[in-house]
């Protein structure tokens, strides 16, 4: 029994001794400043410029580790950026080679910038953020763009307004014509190992349009006047870019003169002033008018046309109760059926057709009601006696 107790005491003493030895060993590691974080080739690190030499930089990358950024790497960077580097400045570097005889790591700032850009591209893919970049080239499949220190690729199927069914030469000319353009883009694929960065202008523009339309609909008011650019023409009207969001300018709101198609008054690319006349936030629609910002030809109509005046007019429409005739762009008068031809004519409306140019007499003028009454018959009756005397 006594022997058993003695063994327990010895085991306890041995355990305490081992624990003390372990603690002392751990202290030795701390005092020796053992480096557990040894840089590996390809690692991205932050470093501090220790010395700027004539053809290289000496950079401390932590602890007692220094590395060299050679001139061959610096030459890949923007000269203005290199010129602005200062001692004590923190910079990103990539470990290119482990120390050799000189004891210095070889570092690359150019690779570090690219690695940072890959990280940024991945973040933009995750967030769906839109950014603007410049087209610098093209190939058979699409466009290449400048993405900071990388090159991005925009497939032709993701390029806005890219015509279809083009010949090879036409496709090449279309893509080449976009070099130098800046375009909004959205990252859709990132593969750093394969150095593949794919972007889409189409998705970026769709999202940008939605964002801009939502923003405009929260700030616009009926009656606001804006300058927009005609983006496309349709038989029913023109779509006008108001700065990222489109509004519809109906064909009847383009001007005071009636037209059959918007192309009679507008061209794609025209900069025009428009007024907001309706807003539909729920359906994200904006209705515009250009006509309401133009001088209304009816405003001083009574000072320009008087009762009894005879003037040339052009028949525009024939209806059951008479014919409408244009006096000037935006101003039409009505020739009542009783004033179209002599009462003896069985079917007076058959005597006029749209496009006919005739003389008519002003019977009534009302600027407030925007109406002018005309007579063709009275002009004809006034000239007939003179003709018969001849």
Name its key features.
OB fold (Dihydrolipoamide Acetyltransferase, E2P), five-stranded antiparallel beta sheet, 8 helices, five-stranded mixed beta barrel, 20 strands, 390 residues, 4 domains, single chain, alpha+beta
What is the helix fraction of residues, given as a range? 25-40%
Q: Tell me the number of helical segments per DSSP (H or I, 4 or more residues long).
A: 8
Taking the alpha carbons of the first and last residues, their distance comes to 162 Å
Question: How confident is the prediction overall: mean pLDDT?
Answer: 88
Which term fits the overall shape? rod-shaped
Highest CATH level, the class of the largest domain:
Mainly Beta
SSE-based structural type? alpha+beta
What CATH architecture label of the largest domain applies? Beta Barrel
The count of DSSP E runs of length 2 or more, i.e. the number of strands, is 20
Number of domains: 4
CATH-defined topology of the largest domain:
OB fold (Dihydrolipoamide Acetyltransferase, E2P)
Low-confidence stretches: none
List the helices and strands in order.
HEEEHHEEHEEEHEEHEEEEEHEEEEEH
Radius of gyration: 41 Å
Strand content: 35-45%
CATH-defined superfamily of the largest domain: Nucleic acid-binding proteins
**Widest sheet, order of strands:** 1-2-3-5-4
Characterization of this structure:
With 390 residues, the chain is an alpha+beta fold. It folds into four domains: 44-112, OB fold (Dihydrolipoamide Acetyltransferase, E2P); 128-205, Beta Barrel (OB fold (Dihydrolipoamide Acetyltransferase, E2P)); 222-293, Nucleic acid-binding proteins (OB fold (Dihydrolipoamide Acetyltransferase, E2P), Beta Barrel), CATH 2.40.50.140; 301-389, Beta Barrel (OB fold (Dihydrolipoamide Acetyltransferase, E2P)), CATH 2.40.50.140. It is built from eight helices and 20 strands. The protein has helices at 2-31, 71-74, 79-83, 109-127, 168-176, 201-219, 301-304, 377-389; strands at residues 44-52, 56-60, 66-70, 90-97, 105-108, 130-139, 142-147, 150-155, 182-191, 196-200, 225-234, 237-241, 246-250, 271-280, 285-289, 310-319, 322-328, 331-336, 357-366, 371-375. A five-stranded mixed beta barrel has the order 1-2-3-5-4. A hairpin with a 5-residue loop joins strand 2 and strand 3 (66-70). The longest helix has 30 residues, at 2-31. The model has no long low-confidence stretch (mean pLDDT 88).
């Amino acid at each position: 029994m006594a022997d058993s107790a003695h063994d327990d005491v010895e085991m306890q003493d041995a355990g305490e001794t081992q624990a003390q030895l372990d603690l002392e060993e751990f202290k030795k590691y701390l005092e020796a400043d053992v480096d557990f974080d040894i840089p590996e080739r390809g690692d991205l690190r932050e470093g501090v410029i220790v010395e700027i030499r004539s053809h290289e930089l000496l950079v401390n990358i932590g602890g007692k580790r220094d590395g060299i950024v050679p001139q061959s790497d610096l030459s890949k960077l923007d000269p203005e950026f290199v010129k602005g580097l200062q001692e004590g400045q923190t910079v990103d570097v990539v470990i290119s080679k482990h120390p050799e005889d000189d004891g210095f790591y070889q570092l690359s700032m150019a690779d570090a910038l690219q690695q940072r850009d890959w990280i940024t591209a991945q973040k933009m893919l995750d967030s769906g953020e839109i950014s603007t970049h410049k087209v610098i080239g093209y190939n058979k499949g699409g466009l290449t763009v400048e993405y900071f220190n990388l090159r991005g690729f925009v497939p032709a199927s993701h390029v806005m307004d890219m015509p279809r069914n083009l010949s090879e030469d036409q496709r090449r000319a279309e893509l080449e014509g976009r070099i130098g353009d800046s375009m909004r883009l959205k990252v859709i694929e990132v593969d750093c190992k394969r150095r593949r960065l794919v972007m889409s202008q189409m998705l970026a523009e769709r999202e940008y349009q939605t964002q801009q339309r939502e923003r405009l609909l929260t700030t616009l008011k009926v009656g606001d006047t804006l300058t927009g650019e005609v983006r496309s023409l349709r038989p029913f009207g023109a779509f006008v870019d108001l700065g990222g969001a489109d509004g519809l300018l109906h064909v009847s709101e383009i001007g005071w003169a009636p037209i059959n198609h918007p192309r009679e008054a507008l061209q794609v690319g025209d900069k025009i002033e428009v007024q907001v006349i309706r807003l539909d936030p729920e359906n994200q629609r904006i209705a515009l008018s250009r006509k309401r910002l133009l001088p209304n030809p009816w405003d001083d109509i009574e000072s320009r046309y008087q009762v009894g005046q005879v003037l040339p007019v052009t028949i525009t429409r024939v209806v059951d109760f008479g014919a409408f005739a244009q006096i000037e762009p935006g101003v039409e008068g009505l020739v009542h059926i009783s004033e179209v031809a002599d009462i003896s004519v069985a079917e007076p409306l058959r005597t006029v057709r749209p496009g006919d140019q005739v003389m008519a007499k002003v019977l009534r003028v009302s600027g407030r009601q925007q109406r002018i009454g005309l007579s063709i018959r009275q002009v004809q009756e006034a000239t007939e006696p003179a003709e018969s005397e001849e």
